[in-house]
Amino acid sequence: MTTRATAQPATPRIPADRLHAYIEAIWEKAGSTPREAALVADHLVAANLTGHDSHGVGMTPRYVASLADGELKLNLHAEVVKDAGAVLSVEGGKGFGQVVAFEAMEQGIERAKRLGICAVGLRGSHHIGRIGHWAEQCARAGLVSFHFVNVAGDPLVAPFGGVDRRIGTNPFCAAYPRPGKPPLVLDFATSTVAYGKTRVAYNQHREVPPGSLIDHEGMPTRDPKVMHEAPFGSLTPFGGHKGFGLAAMCEIFAGALSGGFTTHATTLGTTNAIINCSFMHKYVRNGQLEFLAYQ
Fold first, then answer.
1. Per mean pLDDT, which of 175-179, 218-222, 263-267 is the most reliable?
2. Number of domains the chain is built from
3. 154 and 25 share a domain?
4. What residues contact 103, with CB distance under 8 A and at least 6 apart?
């Protein structure tokens, strides 16, 4: 088992409003409209403020690289390509996930409130960030929601018992609103740790929790460099075969069912950009569920 030195550099502290203004300025300078720049900054800074630096402003350099590679498109909006009443298929066009996911959620929320239920398939979006952000958006509207997400591009997770990377970190999320209280939110990658958390640990010279990683030979390691320096290792699925099974279902629901990208050879991209597809169910709460949520 390999390990890494644990010397930790000091983490800089920046007021949230200054950080928000800085991120906005970056994207306005890059060509985003003020609304788009604000939505991106809102999402990234909120991730930091909720304690998820892995999905916060530290993603900005990677977003800039995606823009330079033509894998992130500015000022695009969610496009409904199929409307079947309670089922919406939405194309993201590699636009900012912070914009197209927000717009897809708004359309799904309106439809669920009108019909009682709605399923939204969002495909081909650039990184949609912390999935709990979108579940919280639904919860604020009084809706229960379930979110299946896949991560197309380079696979990062080895199957249970395997060595080679085969699938993405494919998050799952669910949320239940509680009047006058924060919603109950379950939001996790189907890997033991999210890839972004290995980046944070790598930059801070920290080890990751035991069981999170294997090296290129399949040996357990706590050293995050195996995800950021050759020879590359893999993330492990949480819960062994159960986590990998859920990851596979996220791949099917979010990637295949939405008509989007997957890690299959026929749709796998060659880019390092983070392309997400997601499949979301939204339900209007009923009294029995509300009663149970308070027990």
1. 218-222
2. 2
3. no
4. 77, 78
Regarding whether 268 and 142 lie in a shared domain, the answer is yes
Tell whether 48 is covered by a domain. Answer: yes
Same structural domain, 126 and 247: yes
Query: For residues 161 and 170, what is the distance between their CA atoms, to the nearest angstrom?
Result: 18
What is the span of the domain harbouring residue 50?
A: 17-69
Q: List Cβ neighbours of 254 (8 Å cut-off, separation of 6 or more).
A: 121, 148, 149, 150, 170, 260, 276, 277, 278, 279
So what's the pLDDT on residue 294? 41
Average model confidence (pLDDT) for the chain?
A: 90
Collapse the DSSP code of 236 into the 3-class scheme (helix H, G, I; strand E, B; otherwise coil) and give the result. coil
In the predicted structure, residue 291 carries a pLDDT above the cut 70: no
DSSP string, 166-213: -B----EEEEEEETTEEEEEEEE-SBSS-HHHHHHHHHTT-PPPTTSE
91 plus 139 within the same structural domain: yes
Structure tokens at 142: 């009084």
